[in-house]
Protein backbone atom coordinates (compact mmCIF):
# COMPACT_ATOMS: atom_id res chain seq x y z
CA UNK A 1 0.00 0.00 0.00
CA UNK A 2 2.83 2.40 0.84
CA UNK A 3 4.50 1.69 -2.49
CA UNK A 4 1.15 2.38 -4.13
CA UNK A 5 0.84 5.78 -2.45
CA UNK A 6 4.42 6.78 -3.15
CA UNK A 7 3.99 5.79 -6.77
CA UNK A 8 1.64 8.75 -7.09
CA UNK A 9 3.63 11.07 -4.83
CA UNK A 10 6.60 10.78 -7.17
CA UNK A 11 4.97 12.18 -10.25
CA UNK A 12 2.13 10.05 -11.59
CA UNK A 13 -0.98 11.89 -12.75
CA UNK A 14 -3.39 11.76 -9.82
CA UNK A 15 -6.23 13.21 -11.86
CA UNK A 16 -6.36 10.25 -14.27
CA UNK A 17 -6.35 7.47 -11.67
CA UNK A 18 -8.93 4.73 -12.41
CA UNK A 19 -11.61 3.71 -9.95
CA UNK A 20 -9.93 0.33 -9.50
CA UNK A 21 -6.89 2.04 -8.01
CA UNK A 22 -9.06 3.89 -5.50
CA UNK A 23 -10.72 0.62 -4.51
CA UNK A 24 -7.32 -1.02 -4.13
CA UNK A 25 -6.12 1.76 -1.85
CA UNK A 26 -9.28 1.55 0.27
CA UNK A 27 -8.72 -2.15 0.79
CA UNK A 28 -5.04 -1.63 1.57
CA UNK A 29 -5.86 0.90 4.27
CA UNK A 30 -8.69 -1.27 5.60
CA UNK A 31 -10.82 1.78 6.43
CA UNK A 32 -14.33 1.82 7.78
CA UNK A 33 -14.68 5.19 6.08
CA UNK A 34 -14.06 6.23 2.48
CA UNK A 35 -11.18 7.56 0.41
CA UNK A 36 -11.09 9.75 -2.68
CA UNK A 37 -7.89 9.71 -4.71
CA UNK A 38 -9.27 11.86 -7.51
CA UNK A 39 -9.60 15.66 -7.75
CA UNK A 40 -10.84 16.91 -4.38
CA UNK A 41 -11.65 20.61 -4.52
CA UNK A 42 -12.96 20.76 -0.96
CA UNK A 43 -9.63 19.48 0.42
CA UNK A 44 -7.55 21.90 -1.62
CA UNK A 45 -9.10 25.15 -0.39
CA UNK A 46 -10.25 26.78 2.83
CA UNK A 47 -12.29 29.73 4.08
CA UNK A 48 -9.39 32.13 3.62
CA UNK A 49 -9.41 31.54 -0.11
CA UNK A 50 -5.78 32.64 -0.33
CA UNK A 51 -4.09 29.31 -1.05
CA UNK A 52 -4.89 26.12 -2.91
CA UNK A 53 -2.85 22.91 -2.96
CA UNK A 54 -3.86 19.44 -4.10
CA UNK A 55 -3.65 16.50 -1.72
CA UNK A 56 -2.93 12.97 -2.81
CA UNK A 57 -6.06 11.67 -1.13
CA UNK A 58 -9.09 12.92 0.79
CA UNK A 59 -10.17 10.45 3.46
CA UNK A 60 -13.39 10.41 5.45
CA UNK A 61 -12.65 8.43 8.64
CA UNK A 62 -15.47 7.11 10.81
CA UNK A 63 -13.50 6.91 14.05
CA UNK A 64 -10.14 6.97 15.80
CA UNK A 65 -9.15 3.59 14.34
CA UNK A 66 -9.37 4.98 10.82
CA UNK A 67 -7.41 8.09 11.81
CA UNK A 68 -4.69 6.01 13.48
CA UNK A 69 -4.48 3.68 10.50
CA UNK A 70 -3.92 6.55 8.09
CA UNK A 71 -1.23 8.11 10.30
CA UNK A 72 0.57 4.78 10.69
CA UNK A 73 0.48 4.29 6.93
CA UNK A 74 1.99 7.74 6.41
CA UNK A 75 4.67 6.96 9.00
CA UNK A 76 5.73 3.88 7.01
CA UNK A 77 6.08 5.95 3.86
CA UNK A 78 9.11 8.03 2.98
CA UNK A 79 7.43 11.42 2.73
CA UNK A 80 3.63 11.41 3.18
CA UNK A 81 2.03 13.99 5.48
CA UNK A 82 -1.42 14.10 7.08
CA UNK A 83 -3.69 17.08 7.73
CA UNK A 84 -6.90 16.96 9.78
CA UNK A 85 -9.56 19.18 8.21
CA UNK A 86 -12.49 20.29 10.35
CA UNK A 87 -14.98 22.60 8.67
CA UNK A 88 -12.34 24.24 6.50
CA UNK A 89 -12.43 27.58 8.32
CA UNK A 90 -8.67 28.11 8.38
CA UNK A 91 -7.31 31.19 6.65
CA UNK A 92 -3.86 30.35 5.28
CA UNK A 93 -4.00 26.71 4.25
CA UNK A 94 -3.37 25.33 7.75
CA UNK A 95 -5.58 22.30 7.08
CA UNK A 96 -4.08 21.42 3.70
CA UNK A 97 -1.46 18.82 2.73
CA UNK A 98 0.37 19.37 -0.53
CA UNK A 99 0.41 15.91 -2.16
CA UNK A 100 -0.30 14.43 1.22
CA UNK A 101 -3.43 13.09 2.89
CA UNK A 102 -6.29 15.26 4.14
CA UNK A 103 -8.78 13.73 6.57
CA UNK A 104 -12.31 15.08 6.79
CA UNK A 105 -12.96 15.09 10.55
CA UNK A 106 -16.60 16.02 9.95
CA UNK A 107 -17.21 12.41 8.87
CA UNK A 108 -16.36 11.06 12.34
CA UNK A 109 -19.18 9.21 14.10
CA UNK A 110 -20.97 11.49 16.57
CA UNK A 111 -20.87 9.44 19.81
CA UNK A 112 -22.45 12.28 21.79
CA UNK A 113 -23.26 11.73 25.47
CA UNK A 114 -23.57 13.74 28.67
CA UNK A 115 -21.75 12.43 31.75
CA UNK A 116 -22.06 13.36 35.41
CA UNK A 117 -18.77 12.99 37.32
CA UNK A 118 -18.49 14.03 40.97
CA UNK A 119 -21.50 16.30 40.60
CA UNK A 120 -20.28 18.07 37.44
CA UNK A 121 -21.70 17.66 33.94
CA UNK A 122 -19.59 16.98 30.86
CA UNK A 123 -20.31 16.43 27.18
CA UNK A 124 -18.33 13.73 25.41
CA UNK A 125 -18.19 14.70 21.75
CA UNK A 126 -16.38 13.78 18.58
CA UNK A 127 -13.44 15.95 17.57
CA UNK A 128 -15.23 16.48 14.27
CA UNK A 129 -18.50 17.71 15.81
CA UNK A 130 -19.50 21.31 15.17
CA UNK A 131 -19.95 23.50 18.24
CA UNK A 132 -23.41 24.47 16.99
CA UNK A 133 -24.35 20.78 17.09
CA UNK A 134 -22.99 20.51 20.64
CA UNK A 135 -25.00 23.59 21.64
CA UNK A 136 -28.30 22.28 20.31
CA UNK A 137 -27.91 18.80 21.78
CA UNK A 138 -26.85 20.05 25.20
CA UNK A 139 -29.46 22.79 25.50
CA UNK A 140 -32.44 21.00 23.97
CA UNK A 141 -31.74 17.62 25.50
CA UNK A 142 -30.33 18.50 28.91
CA UNK A 143 -30.72 22.23 29.62
CA UNK A 144 -26.91 22.44 29.77
CA UNK A 145 -24.23 24.19 27.72
CA UNK A 146 -20.45 24.55 27.52
CA UNK A 147 -19.12 27.56 29.39
CA UNK A 148 -16.83 29.02 26.72
CA UNK A 149 -17.53 29.54 23.04
CA UNK A 150 -16.29 31.01 19.80
CA UNK A 151 -18.32 33.72 18.05
CA UNK A 152 -18.92 31.47 15.04
CA UNK A 153 -20.10 27.98 15.97
CA UNK A 154 -19.79 26.18 12.62
CA UNK A 155 -16.30 25.14 13.72
CA UNK A 156 -15.22 21.71 14.90
CA UNK A 157 -14.42 20.87 18.50
CA UNK A 158 -10.99 19.53 17.58
CA UNK A 159 -10.24 22.55 15.41
CA UNK A 160 -10.84 25.21 18.06
CA UNK A 161 -9.16 23.19 20.82
CA UNK A 162 -6.07 23.00 18.59
CA UNK A 163 -5.93 26.81 18.65
CA UNK A 164 -7.65 28.20 21.79
CA UNK A 165 -11.29 29.06 21.13
CA UNK A 166 -12.24 32.54 22.36
CA UNK A 167 -15.34 34.68 22.58
CA UNK A 168 -17.02 37.07 24.98
CA UNK A 169 -17.17 34.49 27.80
CA UNK A 170 -13.39 33.90 27.88
CA UNK A 171 -12.75 36.71 30.36
CA UNK A 172 -14.64 34.66 32.97
CA UNK A 173 -14.07 31.02 32.04
CA UNK A 174 -10.97 31.20 29.90
CA UNK A 175 -10.75 29.92 26.31
CA UNK A 176 -12.26 26.61 25.27
CA UNK A 177 -8.90 24.96 25.96
CA UNK A 178 -9.42 25.78 29.65
CA UNK A 179 -12.78 24.00 29.68
CA UNK A 180 -11.89 20.51 28.46
CA UNK A 181 -10.80 17.81 30.90
CA UNK A 182 -10.05 14.77 28.73
CA UNK A 183 -9.10 14.07 25.12
CA UNK A 184 -8.71 11.09 22.87
CA UNK A 185 -5.79 11.84 20.58
CA UNK A 186 -4.08 10.05 17.70
CA UNK A 187 -0.41 11.00 17.88
CA UNK A 188 1.98 11.41 14.96
CA UNK A 189 3.16 7.87 15.66
CA UNK A 190 -0.32 6.51 15.04
CA UNK A 191 -0.98 5.74 18.72
CA UNK A 192 -4.48 6.35 20.08
CA UNK A 193 -4.16 7.74 23.61
CA UNK A 194 -6.53 8.99 26.30
CA UNK A 195 -5.01 12.04 27.92
CA UNK A 196 -5.89 14.49 30.68
CA UNK A 197 -4.20 16.56 33.37
CA UNK A 198 -3.31 13.34 35.20
CA UNK A 199 -2.89 10.85 32.32
CA UNK A 200 -0.51 11.44 29.41
CA UNK A 201 -0.49 15.04 30.56
CA UNK A 202 2.33 16.20 28.29
CA UNK A 203 0.31 15.20 25.24
CA UNK A 204 -2.87 16.65 26.73
CA UNK A 205 -1.40 20.11 27.28
CA UNK A 206 0.65 19.94 24.09
CA UNK A 207 -2.35 19.24 21.88
CA UNK A 208 -4.38 22.09 23.42
CA UNK A 209 -3.40 25.08 21.31
CA UNK A 210 -0.80 22.90 19.58
CA UNK A 211 -1.88 23.78 16.03
CA UNK A 212 -2.31 20.09 15.22
CA UNK A 213 1.43 19.44 15.54
CA UNK A 214 1.35 16.67 18.16
CA UNK A 215 -1.86 14.79 17.56
CA UNK A 216 -5.33 14.72 16.05
CA UNK A 217 -8.18 15.21 18.53
CA UNK A 218 -10.78 12.49 17.93
CA UNK A 219 -12.84 12.96 21.11
CA UNK A 220 -13.15 15.62 23.82
CA UNK A 221 -14.79 15.85 27.24
CA UNK A 222 -16.12 19.38 27.67
CA UNK A 223 -17.26 20.94 30.95
CA UNK A 224 -20.94 21.98 31.05
CA UNK A 225 -23.08 24.27 33.18
CA UNK A 226 -26.82 25.06 33.33
CA UNK A 227 -27.88 26.96 30.23
CA UNK A 228 -29.79 30.24 30.65
CA UNK A 229 -33.08 30.69 28.82
CA UNK A 230 -32.62 34.18 27.47
CA UNK A 231 -30.07 36.93 26.88
CA UNK A 232 -30.25 40.71 26.92
CA UNK A 233 -27.78 41.80 24.25
CA UNK A 234 -26.56 45.41 24.43
CA UNK A 235 -24.28 47.63 22.35
CA UNK A 236 -22.83 50.88 23.70
CA UNK A 237 -21.01 53.51 21.63
CA UNK A 238 -17.85 55.36 22.67
CA UNK A 239 -16.07 58.26 21.03
CA UNK A 240 -12.81 57.90 22.99
CA UNK A 241 -10.65 54.78 23.06
CA UNK A 242 -9.57 55.49 26.64
CA UNK A 243 -13.18 55.46 27.86
CA UNK A 244 -13.90 52.27 25.92
CA UNK A 245 -10.92 50.35 27.31
CA UNK A 246 -11.51 51.62 30.86
CA UNK A 247 -15.06 50.32 30.89
CA UNK A 248 -14.22 47.06 29.14
CA UNK A 249 -11.44 46.35 31.64
CA UNK A 250 -13.73 47.27 34.53
CA UNK A 251 -16.30 44.70 33.39
CA UNK A 252 -13.88 41.83 32.79
CA UNK A 253 -12.18 42.26 36.17
CA UNK A 254 -15.42 42.29 38.19
CA UNK A 255 -16.62 39.15 39.95
CA UNK A 256 -19.45 37.02 38.60
CA UNK A 257 -22.75 38.59 39.63
CA UNK A 258 -21.24 42.06 39.48
CA UNK A 259 -20.72 42.17 35.71
CA UNK A 260 -22.20 40.97 32.46
CA UNK A 261 -21.91 37.37 31.25
CA UNK A 262 -20.39 38.32 27.91
CA UNK A 263 -18.05 41.19 27.05
CA UNK A 264 -16.70 42.01 23.59
CA UNK A 265 -16.18 45.14 21.52
CA UNK A 266 -15.44 46.41 18.06
CA UNK A 267 -14.20 49.42 16.11
CA UNK A 268 -16.31 51.02 13.41
CA UNK A 269 -15.87 53.90 11.00
CA UNK A 270 -17.34 57.29 11.94
CA UNK A 271 -19.30 57.62 8.70
CA UNK A 272 -22.35 56.29 6.89
CA UNK A 273 -20.33 53.59 5.08
CA UNK A 274 -22.83 50.67 4.94
CA UNK A 275 -20.15 47.99 5.50
CA UNK A 276 -17.94 49.73 8.05
CA UNK A 277 -19.85 52.62 9.59
CA UNK A 278 -22.77 53.63 11.80
CA UNK A 279 -25.31 51.18 10.39
CA UNK A 280 -23.27 48.19 11.62
CA UNK A 281 -24.05 49.00 15.27
CA UNK A 282 -27.88 48.73 15.80
CA UNK A 283 -29.10 45.26 16.73
CA UNK A 284 -32.33 45.38 14.75
CA UNK A 285 -33.77 47.30 11.84
CA UNK A 286 -36.23 49.21 14.03
CA UNK A 287 -33.49 51.17 15.78
CA UNK A 288 -31.45 53.44 13.54
CA UNK A 289 -28.15 55.09 14.42
CA UNK A 290 -28.52 58.84 14.94
CA UNK A 291 -25.08 60.40 14.24
CA UNK A 292 -26.12 63.75 15.75
CA UNK A 293 -25.39 62.24 19.17
CA UNK A 294 -21.72 61.67 18.32
CA UNK A 295 -19.48 64.19 20.14
CA UNK A 296 -18.13 66.86 17.81
CA UNK A 297 -14.52 66.05 18.72
CA UNK A 298 -14.82 62.37 17.72
CA UNK A 299 -12.12 60.99 15.43
CA UNK A 300 -12.26 58.86 12.26
CA UNK A 301 -13.28 55.73 14.16
CA UNK A 302 -15.65 55.01 17.03
CA UNK A 303 -15.85 52.10 19.46
CA UNK A 304 -18.66 49.81 20.51
CA UNK A 305 -18.73 47.86 23.77
CA UNK A 306 -20.88 44.77 23.35
CA UNK A 307 -22.25 43.06 26.47
CA UNK A 308 -24.89 40.49 27.36
CA UNK A 309 -26.71 39.37 30.49
CA UNK A 310 -28.11 35.85 30.88
CA UNK A 311 -31.45 35.28 32.62
CA UNK A 312 -34.24 32.77 33.15
CA UNK A 313 -37.77 32.83 31.81
CA UNK A 314 -38.95 33.09 35.40
CA UNK A 315 -37.04 36.34 36.02
CA UNK A 316 -39.34 39.37 36.09
CA UNK A 317 -38.55 41.96 33.40
CA UNK A 318 -38.27 44.69 36.03
CA UNK A 319 -35.56 42.70 37.79
CA UNK A 320 -33.56 42.37 34.57
CA UNK A 321 -33.96 46.11 33.95
CA UNK A 322 -32.70 46.86 37.46
CA UNK A 323 -29.61 44.66 37.09
CA UNK A 324 -28.76 46.04 33.64
CA UNK A 325 -29.21 49.67 34.72
CA UNK A 326 -27.00 49.12 37.77
CA UNK A 327 -24.21 47.68 35.63
CA UNK A 328 -24.55 50.33 32.93
CA UNK A 329 -24.60 53.13 35.48
CA UNK A 330 -20.86 52.74 36.01
CA UNK A 331 -20.02 53.13 32.34
CA UNK A 332 -19.11 56.22 30.32
CA UNK A 333 -20.67 55.51 26.93
CA UNK A 334 -22.55 58.03 24.77
CA UNK A 335 -25.88 57.84 26.59
CA UNK A 336 -28.16 58.22 23.59
CA UNK A 337 -26.30 55.62 21.57
CA UNK A 338 -27.35 52.44 23.34
CA UNK A 339 -28.97 49.53 21.52
CA UNK A 340 -30.44 46.36 22.99
CA UNK A 341 -32.56 43.33 22.17
CA UNK A 342 -33.76 40.29 24.13
CA UNK A 343 -33.53 36.87 22.51
CA UNK A 344 -33.11 33.22 23.38
CA UNK A 345 -29.75 31.88 24.50
CA UNK A 346 -29.34 29.72 21.38
CA UNK A 347 -30.35 32.61 19.11
CA UNK A 348 -27.67 34.74 20.72
CA UNK A 349 -24.94 32.13 20.38
CA UNK A 350 -25.93 31.47 16.76
CA UNK A 351 -26.03 35.16 15.89
CA UNK A 352 -23.15 34.89 13.40
CA UNK A 353 -25.08 32.18 11.54
CA UNK A 354 -27.44 34.93 10.40
CA UNK A 355 -24.46 36.98 9.20
CA UNK A 356 -23.26 33.93 7.27
CA UNK A 357 -26.61 33.57 5.53
CA UNK A 358 -26.59 37.24 4.53
CA UNK A 359 -23.00 36.99 3.29
CA UNK A 360 -23.87 33.92 1.23
CA UNK A 361 -26.82 35.77 -0.29
CA UNK A 362 -24.51 38.69 -1.14
CA UNK A 363 -21.88 36.36 -2.67
CA UNK A 364 -19.15 37.38 -0.21
CA UNK A 365 -19.02 34.33 2.08
CA UNK A 366 -17.07 32.30 -0.48
CA UNK A 367 -14.84 35.21 -1.48
CA UNK A 368 -11.27 35.44 -0.05
CA UNK A 369 -10.95 36.39 3.62
CA UNK A 370 -7.50 37.79 4.44
CA UNK A 371 -8.17 37.88 8.18
CA UNK A 372 -5.66 38.88 10.83
CA UNK A 373 -6.00 37.91 14.52
CA UNK A 374 -3.68 39.12 17.26
CA UNK A 375 -3.27 39.22 21.02
CA UNK A 376 -1.93 42.64 22.08
CA UNK A 377 -0.69 43.56 25.54
CA UNK A 378 -2.67 46.09 27.57
CA UNK A 379 0.48 48.22 27.84
CA UNK A 380 0.58 48.70 24.05
CA UNK A 381 -3.08 48.76 23.09
CA UNK A 382 -3.37 52.57 23.11
CA UNK A 383 -0.41 52.90 20.71
CA UNK A 384 -1.94 50.17 18.55
CA UNK A 385 -5.18 52.17 18.42
CA UNK A 386 -3.42 55.39 17.41
CA UNK A 387 -1.53 53.87 14.50
CA UNK A 388 -3.60 50.88 13.36
CA UNK A 389 -7.24 51.79 14.04
CA UNK A 390 -7.02 55.55 13.53
CA UNK A 391 -4.61 55.52 10.58
CA UNK A 392 -4.17 52.24 8.71
CA UNK A 393 -7.77 51.05 9.23
CA UNK A 394 -9.59 54.39 9.42
CA UNK A 395 -11.71 53.39 6.40
CA UNK A 396 -12.57 49.95 7.83
CA UNK A 397 -11.89 46.44 6.57
CA UNK A 398 -15.24 45.55 4.98
CA UNK A 399 -16.14 43.48 8.05
CA UNK A 400 -15.90 43.54 11.85
CA UNK A 401 -12.83 44.85 13.67
CA UNK A 402 -13.11 43.11 17.03
CA UNK A 403 -11.28 44.23 20.15
CA UNK A 404 -11.86 43.13 23.74
CA UNK A 405 -9.82 42.38 26.87
CA UNK A 406 -8.93 38.94 28.23
CA UNK A 407 -7.32 37.82 31.48
CA UNK A 408 -4.08 35.85 31.51
CA UNK A 409 -5.01 34.06 34.75
CA UNK A 410 -7.88 32.28 32.94
CA UNK A 411 -5.44 30.58 30.54
CA UNK A 412 -3.43 27.49 31.45
CA UNK A 413 0.26 28.16 30.86
CA UNK A 414 0.94 24.43 30.41
CA UNK A 415 -0.78 24.39 27.00
CA UNK A 416 0.99 25.20 23.73
CA UNK A 417 -0.71 28.60 23.44
CA UNK A 418 1.56 31.64 23.60
CA UNK A 419 0.35 35.00 24.89
CA UNK A 420 1.88 38.50 25.10
CA UNK A 421 4.50 38.58 27.82
CA UNK A 422 3.41 41.42 30.07
CA UNK A 423 0.55 41.93 32.50
CA UNK A 424 -2.71 40.26 33.47
CA UNK A 425 -4.82 41.97 30.79
CA UNK A 426 -4.29 41.59 27.06
CA UNK A 427 -6.58 42.27 24.10
CA UNK A 428 -7.84 40.17 21.26
CA UNK A 429 -7.81 42.12 17.99
CA UNK A 430 -9.46 40.47 14.99
CA UNK A 431 -9.63 42.05 11.54
CA UNK A 432 -12.38 39.99 9.92
CA UNK A 433 -12.00 41.23 6.39
CA UNK A 434 -14.51 40.50 3.65
CA UNK A 435 -13.92 41.14 -0.03
CA UNK A 436 -17.23 42.31 -1.55
CA UNK A 437 -17.46 42.09 -5.34
CA UNK A 438 -17.42 45.86 -5.85
CA UNK A 439 -14.81 47.66 -7.98
CA UNK A 440 -14.23 50.41 -5.41
CA UNK A 441 -13.06 47.99 -2.73
CA UNK A 442 -9.34 47.23 -2.35
CA UNK A 443 -8.09 44.01 -3.95
CA UNK A 444 -7.11 41.03 -1.82
CA UNK A 445 -3.43 41.76 -2.41
CA UNK A 446 -3.79 45.20 -0.83
CA UNK A 447 -5.55 43.71 2.21
CA UNK A 448 -2.78 41.14 2.66
CA UNK A 449 -0.19 43.92 2.34
CA UNK A 450 -2.06 45.93 4.96
CA UNK A 451 -1.96 42.97 7.34
CA UNK A 452 1.79 42.71 6.75
CA UNK A 453 2.18 46.43 7.45
CA UNK A 454 0.41 46.00 10.80
CA UNK A 455 2.63 43.08 11.80
CA UNK A 456 5.77 44.97 10.76
CA UNK A 457 4.64 48.00 12.76
CA UNK A 458 4.26 45.81 15.84
CA UNK A 459 7.68 44.23 15.33
CA UNK A 460 9.56 47.46 14.62
CA UNK A 461 8.02 49.45 17.48
CA UNK A 462 8.33 46.70 20.07
CA UNK A 463 4.60 46.10 20.50
CA UNK A 464 4.07 43.14 22.86
CA UNK A 465 1.89 40.91 20.67
CA UNK A 466 1.33 37.37 19.42
CA UNK A 467 -0.55 36.22 16.36
CA UNK A 468 -3.65 34.19 17.14
CA UNK A 469 -4.32 31.51 14.48
CA UNK A 470 -0.68 32.18 13.49
CA UNK A 471 0.79 31.78 10.04
CA UNK A 472 4.48 32.18 9.31
CA UNK A 473 6.63 31.12 6.37
CA UNK A 474 9.97 30.49 8.10
CA UNK A 475 11.01 28.57 11.18
CA UNK A 476 12.82 31.67 12.42
CA UNK A 477 9.47 33.46 12.55
CA UNK A 478 7.99 30.51 14.42
CA UNK A 479 10.87 30.59 16.91
CA UNK A 480 10.17 34.26 17.56
CA UNK A 481 6.47 33.52 17.93
CA UNK A 482 6.96 30.83 20.57
CA UNK A 483 9.81 32.65 22.31
CA UNK A 484 10.95 30.83 25.43
CA UNK A 485 8.33 28.11 24.76
CA UNK A 486 10.04 27.07 21.52
CA UNK A 487 12.25 24.48 23.25
CA UNK A 488 9.21 22.87 24.87
CA UNK A 489 7.42 22.90 21.52
CA UNK A 490 10.38 21.09 19.89
CA UNK A 491 10.50 18.52 22.67
CA UNK A 492 6.80 17.76 22.25
CA UNK A 493 7.20 17.44 18.50
CA UNK A 494 10.07 14.99 18.95
CA UNK A 495 8.01 12.95 21.43
CA UNK A 496 4.67 12.78 19.65
CA UNK A 497 5.35 13.38 15.93
CA UNK A 498 9.07 12.72 15.41
CA UNK A 499 8.81 12.42 11.61
CA UNK A 500 6.77 15.66 11.30
CA UNK A 501 3.84 13.95 9.62
CA UNK A 502 1.02 16.06 11.05
CA UNK A 503 -0.33 19.47 9.99
CA UNK A 504 2.13 20.30 7.20
CA UNK A 505 0.02 23.32 6.24
CA UNK A 506 1.22 25.17 9.33
CA UNK A 507 4.72 25.21 7.78
CA UNK A 508 6.48 24.85 11.11
CA UNK A 509 8.37 21.61 10.40
CA UNK A 510 9.48 19.70 7.31
CA UNK A 511 8.64 16.03 6.92
CA UNK A 512 11.56 13.80 7.96
CA UNK A 513 11.98 10.96 5.44
CA UNK A 514 11.61 7.39 6.63
CA UNK A 515 14.97 5.59 6.43
CA UNK A 516 15.05 2.92 3.72
TrEMBL record:
Its EC number is 1.5.99.12. The keyword Flavoprotein applies. Residues 51-227 form the FAD-binding PCMH-type domain. It comes from the Eukaryota. PANTHER family: CYTOKININ DEHYDROGENASE 7 (PTHR13878:SF112), GULONOLACTONE OXIDASE (PTHR13878). It catalyses: N(6)-dimethylallyladenine + A + H2O = 3-methyl-2-butenal + adenine + AH2. It comes from Quillaja saponaria (Soap bark tree). Belongs to the oxygen-dependent FAD-linked oxidoreductase family. Its cofactor is FAD. Coiled coil: none annotated. This is cytokinin dehydrogenase. InterPro entries: Cytok_DH_C_sf (IPR016170), Cytokinin_DH_FAD/cytokin-bd (IPR015345), FAD-bd_PCMH (IPR016166), FAD-bd_PCMH-like_sf (IPR036318), FAD-bd_PCMH_sub1 (IPR016167), FAD-bd_PCMH_sub2 (IPR016169), FAD-linked_Oxase-like_C (IPR016164), FAD-linked_Oxidoreductases_BP (IPR050432). Keywords: FAD, Flavoprotein, Oxidoreductase. One of its GO terms (biological process) is cytokinin metabolic process. One of its GO terms (molecular function) is FAD binding.
